[in-house]
Amino acid sequence: MGPGGIATIIAASALLIIAIAVAYLIIRVSRLIDEVKKTVNSVNRITSTAEALTGKVSGAINSILDKESSVMKLLGTVASFAGRRSQKDHN
């Protein structure tokens, strides 16, 4: 085997090593992309859950703070009772 044959074997081996390295890189990048997709989907689920919870809390606070709600009526009754009581204490 002459010098040309040895050079061909070395070039073919180098090409094979490069091809294996590129294939490995592609596999790793595709796994990374899959993990990023899963993470984005998780964040989207968390965000939508937080938005729904915020809406529910806002609705509950608005219903509590509504002047016609039973909570506000109860607080008004307690305040008027406390006001009458403090007036009796001062007299």
Number of DSSP helical runs? 2
Distance between the termini: 122 Å
Strand content: under 5%
Q: Report the count of strand segments.
A: 0
Roughly how many Å is the radius of gyration?
Answer: 37 Å
The 3D shape can be described as: rod-shaped
| Order of helical and strand elements | HH
Query: Uncertain runs with pLDDT below 50, 5 residues or more?
Result: none
**What does the average pLDDT come to?**
86
Helix content estimate: over 70%
Structural class: mainly alpha
Strand count, sense and barrel status of the largest sheet are: none
Quick overview:
This protein has about 90 residues and is mostly helical. The protein is built from 2 helices and no strands.
Characteristics:
91 residues, mainly alpha
Description of the molecule:
With 91 residues, the protein is an all-alpha fold. It has a domain at 3-64. Helix content is 92%, strand content 0%. It contains two helices and no strands.
How is the topology of this model organized?
Elements: H1 3-65, H2 70-90
